[in-house]
Batch of 3 targets.
Target 1
Amino acid sequence: MVDNQTELKNHVLKLLNDKHIEFQIHEFESGATLVDVWMNNKFYAIQFKDKFVGISMINDMHPGFSTVPDESFSEPDKFLLRFNEIMEGH
């Protein structure tokens, strides 16, 4: 079980590395981290903030980054379930 944001972020980065999925990390002075992920021919933005993690898919319908994610999770286990669903097939 992952019980804090740093552990969760490191766990996600390890999963991405292990599967050789392309990503970029952007860290902000606020303490937030944005991870851009390219997988399954799609572009995702994953936001790690104080008390939640957000996932957004960037596409023609949502072409720009927003501080409000498409999906938001305050429980790491629920986020990981969703993240694993997205990673399936890669």
Target 2
Amino acid sequence: MILKKKLLKYGKIDFGNEYEALKTKKTVVVIGYNDKYIIAHDPTDKDNVKITKEDFLKQWENAYKQAITLSN
């Protein structure tokens, strides 16, 4: 169980809905993938990053498998 005090408001996205993200974990936006890599936009880096699927899944597990999906 994640304690509420570990969360912070991430901001307003798209339709003005607020989302929360872990303060201690990095948040990235997945923009693509292939058999070996996840391609993500990292707001702390100027360029998109390429992460091995294995490393991405480890990091996602460490973030309690939190995810946000947006669709039209």
Target 3
Amino acid sequence: VSVTSAGRIVPLDSPPYFVLITEALRDEGTSHHYLPPTEWVSLDPLLAEALDGAFDGLTEPVRRGRSWTTDAPYRETETAIEAARRRGIHAVEMEAAALYAYAEACSRDVVCIAHVTNDMAVDGDDFEKGIDAGTHRILAVVTAIADRLRPVADDESDPIAEHGAAERGADNHAVGGLAEHWDRAYSEHGDDVSWYQDVPTISLGLIEGLGVAAGDPVIDVGGGRSHLVDELAARGHTDLTVLDVSEAALESVRKRSGDGADIQLINADVLTWKPRRRYRLWHDRAVLHFITNDADRERYRKLLDNALTSDGVVVIAVFDSDGPEQCSGLPVRRYSPRELVDFLGPDFEPVVQKRDVHVTPWDTEQSFTWIAARRR
């Protein structure tokens, strides 16, 4: 939580008051080290929703509004201030755009608050104003945010995730025991699951075609029982990560790799995972099609975008439009090649699109849609 003093542009209340910054104008430099150039950067919508009503009862009002982030006071000319006023900007400060860009790029939870006062908490030459400086009221706002967003006991659920779950309803990722479901599937069936491959031939070919170098960071999403990282390690790749919601699946990677390849293992649901770094390649064979709700699909898409380097590439495979309607007892969302391109959106350039018929260990057929794409 960041709280900064701010100048008033378009009034939201009688000073002093706080502004929960929902959008920040990127009129500074630091945010551009984290994200490609855009005019605005925003508070995460799930955080914004989770904070509804959090400030009720505080002695100093907290309003929602837009801020102009600039990196030097000399930019705050009369002309610039008037231009900001015409755009409906409520406050000017020096931090929010950079912090929200950092949050989006690194998948962190950041909330920015602007404290708007008539005199910026300074009265003439007196900088030591005690309680009148607003510090106690600032702490009250920070406490309200912490109380709303931080579970108060280890066994309580994440309030941010709850807001997402409320939107998802009966989606696969809203059902309790997702990890247990897949742990049971892998423990009971081992490699005898419908999507198993001895050698991931198509994936390896697409990865080679995309020009992924041996030292490039690679993540295989849902790849716990896949042999993709084994094959890549054998080909000299040195920066490999596997993410899977099933600890049982990841345990098989540990046993196979032993003291050999240095493979990073992450036990997490992709929809709640917060990446700590960026990857050159995002590989997903048969995870995306389990994400059936539009809100979760958008969350996945944003996570993919945030987790990739600026020259990142993706390889994704899902059930084709004539593929199975469910898998392992869960419903799926099927995609045609065109629908998969549309899902990735205009920021990605398709390199290869193809259909493939996968033969399961018990000789049934499953139709898959594949895409290999790179950032534009």
